[in-house]
Fold prolyl oligopeptidase.
Amino acid sequence: MSRVPYPPARRDDIVDDLHGTPVPDPYRWLEDPDDPATKEWLDAQETLFRSAELEGRDHFRERIAELLRSGSVGTPSWRGERRFFTRRAPDQEHPVLYVADGGGERVLLDPTALDPSGLTTLDSYQPDKEGNRLAYQISVGGDEESRLYVVDVVTGEIIEGPIDRCRYSPVAWLPGGEAFYYVRRLAPSLVPAGEEQYHRRVYLHRVGTSPDDDVLIFGEGLEKTNYYGVSVSLDGRWLSVSASRGTAPRNDLWVADLAASSPEAPELVTVQQDVDAQTGLHFGRDGRLYVFTDLDAPRGRVCVTSPETPGREHWRDLIPEDAEAVLSDFAILDGMAEPVLLVGWTRHAIGEISVHALESGERIGEVPLPGLGSIGGIFERPEGGHEAWFSYTDGITPTAVYHYDALTGETSLWEAPPGAVEVPEATTEQVVYRSKDGTEVRMLVTSRPGSGPRPTILYGYGGFGVPLTPGFSATTLAWVEAGGVYAVAQLRGGGEEGEQWHRDGMLGNKQNVFDDLHAAAEHLIATGVTTRDQLAISGGSNGGLLVGAALTQRPDLYAAVVCSAPLLDMIRYEKFGLGATWNVEYGSADVPEEFAWLWSYSPYHHVRERVSYPATLFTVFASDTRVHPLHAWKMAAALQHAQAGDRPILLRNETEVGHGARAVSRSVELSADQLAFLARHTGLKVG
């Protein structure tokens, strides 16, 4: 294989002095997407990528598309006898929002009908408490800006919107459907330049009035990177407001009695403030306040108290912390003589649901599940009852919705995804290995029957407390069916083992995450699953940072890398996208100690000349407003300059999509390109 000729990229003599450390940044000019030099370089990179020999692309495109023809179905949200849910038919690009009642099903929102180009996505929706009106949020072109609308459920008429600047906004309806609390950013003219994505506030909005007249409820004078949560109890009496600094694993929390103070001026009482814990509240139909918290319980617990005495000194354990399982969800079923509490758990990332007496918390049974997989949220009827709904998926089972009846103790299939697909014969095994410091880490390994080393993709994330749990993946199955192995490492920094597991991989502990990935790779090689020449790593977003660090720390260990929408310049990451909200996860280069953490692994700054790096494909999205593509642009230029070997460094730069949701066809094309690249450079023969 001959060395690839790369597009020229000038190297500027830019060196910053940070806390006495010289920090070179030769490709800073690539931070400006409007610079003609940047555009010329990106065009040349696109030409180079499209000329790459990826023989398996057509095969993977066809097979991934077939597997995604399973479609999808969402768990229902009930309002009386109305239920709201999403479904995607086999040939649809996006899920469609439906409402069902005595008159049957009907479409409330079809993103493709709104925009035949496929660039519009449904971000979220929230019916009012009576099910007569529904607030929904949509984005266009991947920008995730979430314009908010209100629709009349009966007529389908849009009666409100768009209200802009509603990214990541909850909607909390007051009874009657005439008003709701929500979160909106300040207008750009009211904030410093460069801070337009921050400065959120909680408002009260009355349907039919201008959002300019909304009443400011909360957030004035607080941290600019705060995210806010807001909810209102079913009876409309209790308001709760939470505040988190960026993505910090902790929040402040307040409640207000709306029977004793007006919705426009709620008298907020502190539940917790300046406490290093995450806590959420649920106002029960029985008058009790249910507290879901990891305070003094990194794996989570449920406590009870009265809404009149919400402070933690009044909490009583109802479901104490489990020594092994992480508490993920709960639902109250009170339509029987003896009410019960359903509690969702992940035990080493495998889902389970236990049944408890509501009054005492005593465990009295479990909900039968279809297999060893992942459980989605548990939903009950807001007004009470004996039924619950939840989603289930595993490595070979597309996500379906199941129904649990507490009167009979039976679980039954409620709705399967609408498309029938043939999945390959494959099994998933959870293995345990030891990381560099001796910590036990788990890994899910999916393969077809057979033995001997095979081309293998090792995937990881390891951040923000996000757990990697079993689930149906067209990409995984297409790779495994072609003869490869797909491994998912449940690294520190994630949430597989609770909040302490997260903290063991954040801030100054971030190197643990990279060590966990290296150890996973070494385990796969030592046990004969694969070889170094057959081993690829893949990750996106924070997982892109993971594989970026891995390829610079251990270029000898990996044959190929897919690095998608990554963070890679960890010295300047706070200056772009939503970076300033993540310094609670990574640290800030402005703080000397935290700069030292970032400097120790920042992938862009650890590219070295005369090193043979793995074959690397960067995939980025021009409309990504979370992680700016500049990270991958600068890193690709640095690696292309430094590469001493013959393996290619390529950049795939996609337009009109962002960090999150996208049309199915765009997902198919991306996955096909990624798998074809990895197949070529790990020796997987396709077709």
User: Anything to note?
Assistant: The chain has eleven helices and 40 strands. The chain has a mean pLDDT of 97. The longest strand covers residues 325-333.
